[in-house]
Design brief:
Its cofactor is heme. The protein is built from 21 helices and 16 strands. By secondary structure, the chain is an alpha+beta fold. Bound molecules: protoporphyrin IX containing FE.
Length: 578
């Protein structure tokens, strides 16, 4: 054979090898590129990037800390009520639905098509066997049976309300002390609100007599600071800071329980983060502390139950008392031994603490900010309260717990609702099988974010032809309001209307609201959250004037985790003397 030809054979082999490698690499690259769902708008540049939209999202979230704002922005940029983003590399796209009418339909009427997503269940992995993580089915129903009637007016008015009221009195005491120590200066209210929300929820879960309290721990610390030795002013002399109270280990575990979930939610690789977290000593300590404490409370409640007369309702002083009675009753019905020590029951109890704590405290923090920055709203709240509790006002005392749980104060309810409307976290659902949304084919397993901060909530709704909507959506009549009233403004009046007798009433259905989700998987604790907000805001507005604070301390930035949480909440308080 020709020598040149012989030399060319290896070269040809090398070339062939290189070409094959290039083809293989290109195929791998194409395989790993985001896979858009046909017909649904997306960012074209992101579809050509192995990391999809992730780099853009991280750039934005590093600055704003608000992933929900980034999502709403994508829907606006793509000008689409349904769009897709590629946030997790090499995974399916997430769908973003920005339409109140269709979101309501998914949540209320399409439970067979969409359910709790594995995605959100994974983010809440540290909550263990808490029912929020289950798909709708037998396990979920079994857990909900323990909770039946906890949100009944009877339980809320006679057990939860008085317990939360008692804990709110501690906050009033703390702020009277802080006002004196700060000599009228501004201070951060975030931790105080966080603590009173935790104390309130724990009093609901474990009873008013629970002997641990984050607020009282703070009071004890401050009582030792009478000489102002430990009290500091910030460098810029903008606010006074106080030393922190020393929290009971269970209170620390409760706060830590929220913190670990937030860490997972904000991780680019949640499953890995959780895997790593579980190996750390601090995680194990937190889990062990909360399990031991909750079990102890359950055992004490069981002992009280067996030592009281059967059916003696007055013995039920907490959610745990109620849950252990339900477990006993269910066990009898199912002909089995009650399992008071089981991990699922313990996870259910602690899960409710976590679900309730950060969400309620975030809502209260936003309310305080709005009341501080909008004195006319604050005045209106106080006027409404004086009208609702005329005896307390004329006798120069605070409204009692019994008065608080009974009264209707439409303007206060509207303020709470409006704060919730402006600070939602979007709920997610997962397609249970191949289905359709706004006329598009949606593959099984796709995660859909129902944006509560996009079009038809904070921006005017997208025009959508009725034909695109599902049959159940077309059949329903949506509640919507005048979108020409600035949807981003804090305007409680949008939740008020006149009834047939001309009285002003609060109308929770006046317009789009997704703060609690909806339907059978909507928030279980919604009524308790309203009750807690009503009690705490009433007691604050009744006892203190919230004076304006420096503009620099009144930002509206937030972080997204379990809740959409304001970064700043400073107050300058003046006791109202009667
Ligand atoms: C302002 C306060 C609160 C807000 C904004 C809030 C918000 C939410 C949201 C958005 C969901 C998901 C709903 C869905 O997927 O459709 C949810 C679920 C849940 N929330 Fe709340 N929540 C609050 C207070 C509470 C409280 C006080 C409790 C307990 C006492 C609670 C217990 C739960 C539970 C157990 C679930 C899961 C329901 C299920 O999966 O079946 N939440 N909450």
């Amino acid at each position: 054979m020709d020598a040149n030809l012989l030399a060319a054979v290896p070269n040809a082999n090398v070339a062939l090898g290189l070409a094959a490698t290039a083809i293989a690499l290109y195929s791998l690259y194409s395989y790993l590129l985001p896979k858009p769902i046909p017909g649904i708008p997306y960012n074209a540049a992101a579809a050509k990037n192995l990391l999809g939209d992730a780099p853009d999202m991280f750039r934005s979230v590093i600055v704003t800390k608000e992933i929900m704002a980034w999502m709403a922005e994508q829907s606006r940029k793509l000008n689409a009520p349904l769009c897709q983003v590629f946030v997790r590399p090499f995974a399916r796209p997430w769908l973003l639905l920005a339409d109140w009418h269709e979101a309501q339909d998914v949540l209320l009427r399409r439970g067979k098509d969409f359910d709790r997503s594995a995605f959100s269940s994974d983010l809440l992995a540290p909550a263990g066997a808490f029912h929020i993580r289950f798909k709708t089915g037998d396990q979920w129903r079994a857990a909900r049976k323990w909770l039946t009637d906890l949100m009944s007016p009877n339980f809320l008015n006679n057990v939860a309300g008085p317990a939360i009221y008692a804990r709110t009195q501690d906050l009033v005491g703390l702020w009277q002390l802080k006002e004196k120590l700060a000599e009228g200066d501004t201070f951060s209210a975030k931790e105080d609100i966080d603590h009173v929300a935790l104390d309130g929820i724990l009093a609901f879960i474990f009873g008013e007599k629970l002997n641990i309290s984050a607020t009282r721990a703070q009071i004890e610390t401050l009582q030792r600071c009478e000489l102002r030795l430990d009290i500091g002013r910030s460098l810029e002399e903008k606010y006074t800071s106080f030393p922190h109270g020393c929290l009971h280990e269970f209170l620390q575990a409760a706060s830590q329980g929220t913190a670990v979930i937030e860490q997972i939610i904000n991780s680019p690789m949640p499953n890995w983060t959780f895997w790593w977290m579980k190996k750390t000593g601090s995680y194990k300590d937190t889990m062990c502390t909360k399990d031991v404490y909750v079990r102890k409370q359950v055992r004490e409640s069981v002992a009280r139950m067996y030592s009281s007369e059967p059916g003696e309702a007055s013995q039920i002083r907490s959610a745990v008392d109620h849950i252990v009675r339900r477990e006993r009753m269910l066990a009898e019905k199912q002909d089995r031994q009650p399992d008071f020590d089981g991990q699922q029951l313990i996870d259910e109890i602690f899960g409710n603490v976590v679900a309730a704590h950060d969400t309620t405290s975030s809502n209260l923090i936003w309310i305080l900010k709005y009341l501080t920055d909008m004195p006319h709203v604050q005045d209106k709240v106080r006027t409404a309260l004086h009208k609702a509790y005329p005896e307390a006002a004329s006798e120069g005392r605070q409204p009692t717990a019994a008065e608080l749980v009974q009264a209707k104060v439409p303007y206060l309810d509207a303020v709470v609702e409006e704060a919730l409307r402006l600070s939602p976290i979007s709920v997610t659902r997962e397609a249970l099988h191949d289905t359709e949304l706004l006329g598009h084919h949606i593959p099984k397993g796709t995660v859909v974010f129902l944006l509560a901060n996009g079009a038809s909530f904070l921006d005017p709704a997208f025009p959508i032809s009725e034909k695109q909507r599902s049959a159940s959506s077309q059949a329903a009549s949506p509640n919507t309001w005048d979108e020409s009233v600035d949807l981003r403004a804090f305007y409680p009046e949008r939740w008020l209307r006149n009834d047939e007798s001309g009285n002003v009433v609060f109308d929770p259905t006046a317009g789009p609201q997704l703060a609690f989700g909806m339907g059978s998987r909507g928030c279980f604790g919604k009524k308790l959250a309203y009750l807690e907000a009503r009690i705490i805001v009433t007691m604050i507005a009744w006892n203190f004037e919230l004076l304006p604070v420096d503009k620099e301390l009144s930002g509206y930035g937030a972080t997204d985790g379990i809740a959409h949480r304001a970064t700043q909440c400073y107050v300058k308080i003046k006791s109202i003397r009667r």
